Amino acid sequence: MIKKIFCLVVSLLPLYAYAQTERDSIRQENILLDSTFIQEIESVKGEKAKVLHAEPLYIDLIRDLGARKGEKEWNFGLGMKADSNFDEYEALIEYEWAPIDRLGFEIELPLTLYGRGIGINPDQTRPANRLESLKLATQWTFLVSEKTNTSLALGYIHEFELSDLRDLGESRWFQGNVYNPFLIAAKRWGRNYHTLIYTGSRLVKEFDSSWERAYEINTSFHYMISGTRNFIGVELNQEIIENRLLSVMRPQMRIGLAENLMIGIVSGIPLNRENRGLSSFVRVIYEPGFRSMH
C-alpha cells in the first residue's frame, strides 16, 4: 500500500511542477504588464511626474490627480433610484480639461426627473423635474510623491442652483448657490490596490432662505486589474447633516471598451433609514487623444 502511494505521489510530481511553473509564469507576466502600464502613465518623457490612481465613479474627481496639460475628458451619466413614492432618474453631462500641469477644470450639467413609484401616496405631490444647477469646479494637485505613490489635491465646486423646469421663464433662473471646498488624498499600495479620501464642507444658500450646512466624507477602495485601467471596488459616500450621518455604499466596476473609452457601473445601497431605496448609475468616460502604448 505504501509503495502504491509513493508511486502515485512520484507520478503527480511533474503535474505539480508544471502547474507551479504556469502560476509563476502568469504572475511574472502580470508583474510585467503592471510595471509597463504604470510606467507609461507615470513616466512620460518631458512631462511632470504623475502617480496612477483609481478614480471613484459616483463622486468623481475634477481631473486626474497630477493631471498634465492638454488632458481632457467627457463624461455622460445616467442613474435611477427606486422609492416607494417616486422613482428618481438622474442624468449628467460634464467636460473636464487641464489647461496647465496639475490644474483641472470642470463644467457639469446635472438633470433630475421623477416618475411614479410602486407604492405611490395619492396625497403626495410629485417633485418637479429640474436641471439642478450649472456646476463649475477646479482642482489643483499640490503634491505628487512617486516614492510613496501618494497624491494630495485641493479643489472647489461652485453650483448655481437653477429653478424647476416648469418655472423657467416665469421666475428667475437662479435660486441659490452651493459652495463646496474639498481635499483629496490618494495612495496606491503596490501595483494594484488603490485608496482615496475625498472630503469637504458643502454650504447651500438659496435666495430668501437661511444657510444649510453639510460635511461630506467620501472614501473608496479599488483593485485595478493587471495591465489595464479596469477595476472593481467600493465607494462609501457619507454626509453629516444636522448631526446625522447618512451613508450609501456603492460597489462598482470600470471596464475599458477602447483605449480612450470606458464605462463605469455603480450600485447604491443605503446604510440607514433616512436614505431609502436602492439605486444604480452608469458613467460613460471618453478621453479624446488618450493612447496606451502597450
How would you describe this structure to a colleague?
By secondary structure, this protein is mainly beta. The chain has one helix at residues 2-42, and strands at 72-81, 86-100, 103-116, 130-131, 133-145, 150-162, 174-189, 193-206, 211-224, 231-241, 244-258, 261-270, 279-286. The protein has a single domain (43-286), classed as Beta Barrel (Porin). The chain has a twelve-stranded antiparallel beta barrel with strand order 1-2-3-5-6-7-8-9-10-11-12-13. It is globular, with a radius of gyration of 24 Å. The model is unreliable at 15-22 (pLDDT under 50).
Descriptors for this entry?
294 residues, mainly beta, 13 strands, Porin
Could you give the distance between the termini? Answer: 55 Å
Helix count, DSSP H or I runs of 4 or more residues: 1
Q: Give the helix level as a range of percent.
A: 10-25%
- Give the amount of beta strand, in percent: over 45%
